[in-house]
Specification:
Layout (H helix, E strand, L loop, with lengths): L10 H7 L2 H16 L1 E8 L7 H14 L4 E5 L7 H4 L10 E2 L4 E2 L2 E2 L5 E3 L16 H13 L6 E7 L6 H9 L4 E6 L3 H16 L3 E13 L6 E2 L6 H9 L3 E7 L1 H9 L3 H4 L4 H18 L1
Parallel strand pairs: 1-7, 1-8, 2-6, 2-7, 8-9, 9-11
Antiparallel strand pairs: 3-4, 5-6, 9-10
Helix pairs in contact: 2-5, 5-6, 7-8
The structure holds adenosine-5'-triphosphate and magnesium ion.
The site of adenosine-5'-triphosphate (ATP) has 22 residues, from helix 3, strand 9, strand 11 and helix 9.
Length: 290
């Protein structure tokens, strides 16, 4: 089998030189970019698979659908899913501005600007086998070397946990806003509480917690059941003194539409998940635009 190449967007060079000027240049680029973005929101969770990417793409779509200029940065370097959930072909490539030595994000639905490692891979099956410093280099390039332009919202979809990319992005953008996603399951909340604490220790603006996969309506008998014992998100909100932004039920269509690249907020505007999500977006806007 032919050995697949793993792109490294110049990180080898950076690592080899290890020069302070390169880091300073990166920081300068990041600061310049961030000055043009009104609100940066990072979506984190402790546990994997709780719905961060689903929340990120639906938040981006909802905000764009009401006229905001939106960007979405896929900070999940080794497991990028944003392009798939937004229905963007991963063979699309960011266009390079050779004069500036920077690149433009890919234009997604509703003009959402998207940057993801997925656009830099040869195929959607290509693995990214990078250790911490490499991933952090990529995050810095996404923040500083992508020509995001003027945006109302930049949504950053993070991988699970409190290491590498999460720590880096929290450190790099002090004025960012943080949303925590968790399922009601105790094991997910246990990890979510760690991320809330981390964001609070770093004095970031925590907008609140979203409980995803919160209850399920049986498609046969219409009875609503709890998939996990309820109450954990409320408790976390009280314990950490943060808002509970809302709850999104487990909805078979949400999963299917994620796979089809049709965010449910646009496709199924009248169902319960879309309505709950809309209320969450209203709250987020209220908190940020008050
Ligand atoms: N409310 C929901 N109802 C049904 N399925 C959902 C819901 N939210 C998310 N899913 C599905 O659950 C899976 C995990 O969601 P998602 O990829 O958004 O989680 P994640 O936290 O980003 O995962 P990772 O930690 O791997 O990045 C996906 O298949 C998604 O379509
Ligand atoms: Mg994800």
């Amino acid at each position: 089998m032919e050995k697949e190449k793993i792109p490294d967007i110049n990180l080898k060079e950076i690592k080899k030189q290890g020069k302070q000027e390169i880091m300073d240049e990166m920081t300068k680029n990041i600061n310049e970019n961030m000055e043009k973005i009104k609100h940066v929101i990072i979506i984190i969770s402790g546990k994997g698979g709780v719905g961060k990417t689903t929340v990120s793409v639906n938040l981006a779509m909802n905000l764009a659908s009401i006229g905001h200029r939106v960007g979405i940065m896929d900070v999940d370097i080794t497991g990028p899913n944003v392009n798939k959930m937004l229905g963007i072909d991963s063979t699309k490539k960011p266009i390079v501005n050779t004069e500036l030595g920077k690149f433009y994000p890919v234009n997604g639905p509703l003009n959402i600007k998207v940057m993801s490692m997925a656009f830099l891979l040869e195929s959607s099956d290509s693995p990214v086998i990078w250790r911490g410093p490499m991933k952090m280099g990529a995050v810095r390039q996404f923040l500083g070397d992508v020509l995001w332009g003027d945006l109302d919202y930049l949504i950053c979809d993070l991988p699970p946990g409190t290491s590498d990319e999460t720590l880096d992005i929290l450190q790099l953008i002090p004025e960012e806003n943080v949303i925590i996603v968790s399922t009601p399951q105790e094991v997910a909340l246990m990890d979510a509480r760690k991320t809330i604490k981390m964001a609070q220790i770093m004095k970031r603006n925590v907008l609140g917690i979203i409980e995803n996969m919160s209850g399920f309506k049986c498609p046969h008998c219409s009875k609503e059941i709890d998939l996990y014992p309820p109450g954990g998100a409320e408790k976390a909100a009280i314990d950490f003194n943060i808002p509970l932004l809302g709850k999104i039920p487990f909805d078979i269509d949400v999963g299917i539409q994620g796979d089809q690249g049709l965010p449910f907020i646009i496709k199924n505007i009248e169902n319960k998940s879309a309505k709950s999500f809309k209320q969450i977006v209203d709250k987020i806007q209220m908190l940020l635009e008050k």
